[in-house]
Amino acid sequence: MNRIQPIKNLSLACCLGLALTACSDFLSILPPNEIVLENYWTEEADVENAVIGCYAALQSSECIGKMAAWGEIRSDNIVPGMSTPDMETQILKGNILPSHSYSNWTSFYQVINRCNTVLYYAPLVNQKDPNYTPSELKATIAEVTALRDLCYFYLIRTFKDVPFVNLPSIDDNQEYRIQPSSFDSVLTVMIDELELVKDDAVRQYANITSNTARVTRYSIYALLADMYLWKQDYDNCVRCCDLVIDHKIKRYEEEKNTTATKVRLYGKYPLISQQVSGNSTGNAYTEIFGIGHSFESLLELDFEENVSTSNSFISSYYGSNSTTVGYLSAAEFLFKDASSSSNALFKRTDGRYLESMEENNGVYAIDKYTRLNVTYDVSPGTSGTPNVSTSRRSTPYANWIIYRLTDVMLMKAEAEVQLAGNVDPNAITPEQKAHYRNAFSLVSAVYNRANNIVGGRTDTLVFNNFANNRITMEDLVLKERQRELLFEGKRWFDLVRLARREGNNNRLVNYAVNKYVDNQSAMRKKLNAPMALYFPYGESELKVNPNLKQNPAYETGSTTNITD
């Protein structure tokens, strides 16, 4: 029998019952030192409650903050905002320490432990409760495996090599000082696991919101596509992307004649239209980030007022109804001169710079997620910055999107470019050109949806301007990912993936230093260290686990390669 000891394993008890009355009732039956785990896991409702507890843990401010910061704060998108805490200020200067809370992975391992606990006990419930069917058990295993592997995916992209644990902490005799597993080995294990369970996952829930607030078959396909992209297995990345895209096309065909649809085709890809009415645009932002759970969503953490905890990361770090500029702000080069098309990233016709940012007393506020809706009215031929009408959230309950359709489309575009291989501009083969054409059509669909605010525009992308050069095509995709997924916790990971593929930090450094007005040379030196792409292990973990050896980039004399 596995007993939960008081205080020592309190986190496990809480994980089974966070905001769940079923577990609270159970915990009140016996004294704390007499609680027996097996007595809790008796029926299907116990499993369901524990699964919801996994999501609740992932929605914690600790996890959301790290999802965003690990994937964004070190990128060229982010600079200090207003009253930026010292720790974030130091990270933005490249001074990352093992003592920083962002070097601590505890919150993610807490989610992992919850998932492992469900995976351990759910099969036992299947034996006890005839109402909990084998197909439901398989769906549970698929859902919770995906949540656990999503956590590990964040960890390896942030720390590189991490301890991989697939058993729950339910026995005091278990060994917790685990040897870290390599990036590649963890990635391979996760892919193998997800390939085994992906088709057992739920396609569609009875509750519509759950189709994007919980793991489905299609969000697992998106997660697999992302993993295959990092593994540099581009054929399988394309395969998984197509499973997602084909699903959305099928749904569009089923719904296109309904009066409620706000989706139209861009090329052959169904995306939410920007048009509100007449020359008024901004609908895509409102649907995706304001209302949430949109047609394009695949998985987002759902923050519902008076039901869940608030998304305090957005209100503190990006901005709120009372504070336009949060602790973080947008790099100047992202916004400046976009209205005159003199900006290197955004053309005047691109509504995303208007939706995601605004100038506020010389600081560029991050508006993505903080705004409830956005509209801007531009007539053909109009110059200058359009008039933008917005309303900000009155409460801090913005959802956090993990995967959405355009993200997957641009994953596929990146994979298609790599499948073309090294291209000789003077002898490009039909097969290589086909891969480039596929990539270009995906980028164009995303770009053209966003560049829909000025009629008769001349800023439409032209295939022949990119098609004969691999680096040019890579930059096309990378810049479109930056425009489309701005401030969504993706950019730094995109740059790390680029560096891993190339085996050096050169292009990553060239992108990352764009935000620095001063001390660019010092930042180049810091980022050129191969393992500087990753965070150090937290000092508390190093103290309790002697098997962890600190990232050499945070010691002296580093010669380790990026992909060692």
Topology:
Layout: H1 10-17, H2 21-27, H3 37-40, H4 44-58, H5 61-72, E1 78-80, H6 86-92, H7 106-128, H8 134-159, E2 162-163, E3 180-181, H9 183-197, H10 210-213, H11 217-231, H12 234-255, E4 263-266, E5 269-272, E6 275-277, E7 280-281, H13 283-291, E8 297-301, H14 312-318, E9 328-330, H15 332-335, H16 352-356, E10 357-360, E11 363-366, E12 371-377, E13 387-392, E14 400-404, H17 405-419, H18 430-450, H19 470-484, H20 491-502, H21 506-512, H22 520-528, H23 539-544
Antiparallel strand pairs: 1-9, 2-3, 4-5, 6-7, 7-12, 8-14, 10-11, 12-13
Helix pairs in contact: 1-7, 4-7, 7-8, 8-9, 8-11, 9-11, 11-12, 11-17, 12-17, 17-18, 17-19, 18-19, 20-21, 21-22
Subunit arrangement of the protein = single chain
Shape: globular
Output the strand order for the largest sheet.
6-7-12-13
- Specify the helix fraction band: 40-55%
Ends: how far apart? 42 Å
Question: What is the average per-residue confidence, as pLDDT, rounded to a whole number?
Answer: 89
Strand content: 5-15%
DSSP helical segment count: 23
Q: Which stretches of 5+ consecutive residues score pLDDT under 50?
A: 1-35
- Helix/sheet category: alpha+beta
| DSSP strand count | 14
Major sheet characteristics: 4 strands, antiparallel
Q: For the CA atoms, what is the radius of gyration?
A: 24 Å
